[in-house]
Specification:
heterodimer, A: 86 residues, alpha+beta, Glutaredoxin, 4-stranded mixed β-sheet, globular, B: 304 residues, alpha/beta, FAD/NAD(P)-binding domain, 7-stranded mixed β-sheet, 5-stranded parallel β-sheet
């Protein structure tokens, strides 16, 4: 399984759009395990900082940050997912 | 034939959502186009305490969620499509997006405003890697770190105070002209030992390696400061360029010109909220949105 961590928080204006994009990209993909990380929680901010994330929305795949700050492109996310499959 | 919407609303902030609530509730087919940010600039407000009906206060995101729910409850259709063109072809208005085009009998412009960029080398390169435009969203990542807050307006002062709770040090850099006003919160910021004011400077470059490490300044004794984060909180500018280019009247600052009923110079085209550069509050944007919707519905009734 590929672990996709999606970092967000309730006040981030672009997080809903990022979430929609992720949902659309991973729809039907059975090898993706999405973990929602709220950076307004203690565990969430610790996890984000441990990966050197400095902005939300952000996406890490298998523990490596791939996309930070909106906008993301669906194509880029899919490329990173495919890379992780190799 | 393509569907012709009674009302196309461009933007889904407080003004656009309110207009959508009004027109959809009256049974008018309502399409709302947005660029993925439902709630607009209000989403960045960490606490709204002056919106009537919510005496305990709530976050901008919470309030906008309620606006959104109310608009969809009445049947407004929200689509994440960025508008790239507009044309008034007499009977109908054509709104083009990256996904195609839509026809409407009326259009409500509620595009809001966006924060001005600093436009110095390094700003785009380090976006998300130390450069941020939202102190509330990204502030927690800078716990015990040194940050700079660039901006001369009220939000820059408020956000510097917000950041000072978590950061180890906050440089307040309003730019050469200094703060726009003597905001009451400046007293608290100036008396905080973690704040250092660098007034009379402009930023010339943001630099670093993998992440931001320093800022270069001009016209002062200090030429460079070491920082981990840079919060760019400059004033806002109107985002209605595409509509202005298509003939909607605007002033020199790009603010859409409307009459007291939110009517623009083009019949059937209305504007509401921050894009007309008035009010700057959720309540005034919502009021503008309601007025624009009422005028649009009157126009629909009288339309041949």
């Amino acid at each position: 399984m590929i672990k996709l961590e999606y970092f967000h928080n309730p006040v981030c204006p672009y997080c809903p759009a990022a979430k929609n994009l992720i949902t659309n990209v991973v729809e039907g993909l059975k090898d993706i395990d999405i973990i929602y990380v709220d950076t307004f929680t203690d565990e969430g901010i610790v996890r984000g900082m441990s990966l050197d994330i400095m902005a939300v929305p952000a996406i890490a795949i298998n523990g490596v940050v791939k996309l930070t700050g909106w906008p993301f492109e669906a194509e880029d996310l899919l490329t990173y997912i495919n890379e992780a499959r190799k | 034939m393509e569907k012709v919407w009674d009302v196309i609303i461009i933007g889904a902030g407080p003004a656009g959502l309110t207009a959508g609530i009004y027109t959809a509730r009256h049974g008018h087919s309502t399409l709302m186009l947005h660029s993925g940010k439902i709630g607009g600039r209000a989403l960045e407000a960490h606490m709204i305490e002056n919106y009537p009906g919510f005496p305990k206060g709530l976050t901008g995101a919470e309030l906008m969620k309620l606006f959104h729910e109310q608009a969809t409850k009445f049947g407004a259709e929200l689509r994440p499509e960025t508008v790239i063109g507009f044309a008034d072809v007499g009977d109908y208005k054509i709104v083009s997006t990256r996904s195609g085009y839509h026809q409407g009998k009326t259009v409500v412009i509620a595009t809001g405003i966006q924060r001005k960029q600093l436009s110095v080398p390094g700003e785009m390169e380090f976006k998300g890697r130390g450069v941020s435009y939202c102190a509330v969203c990204d502030g927690p990542f800078f716990k015990d770190k040194v940050v700079a807050v660039i901006g001369s307006g009220h939000e820059a002062v408020i956000d510097a105070l917000h950041l000072i709770d978590t950061a180890s040090k906050v440089y307040a850099i309003p730019g050469k002209k200094g703060y726009s006003e003597n905001y009451p919160e400046l007293t608290a910021l100036r008396s905080n030992p973690k704040a250092e004011f660098l007034e009379g400077h402009d930023i010339t470059e943001i630099s670093g390696g993998e992440f931001v490490t320093n800022l270069k300044l001009t016209d002062g004794k200090v030429e460079r400061i070491d920082v981990d984060g840079v919060f760019i909180l400059l004033e806002h500018v109107s985002t209605s360029n595409i509509l202005v280019e298509a003939g909607v009247d605007a002033d020199e600052g790009g603010c859409v010109i409307v009459d007291r009923n939110q009517q623009t110079n083009i019949p059937g085209v209305f504007a509401a909220g921050d894009c007309s550069c008035m009010g700057w509050q959720v309540i005034t944007a919502a009021g503008d949105g309601a007025k624009a919707a009422l005028t649009a519905m009157k126009y629909l009734k009288q339309r041949p």
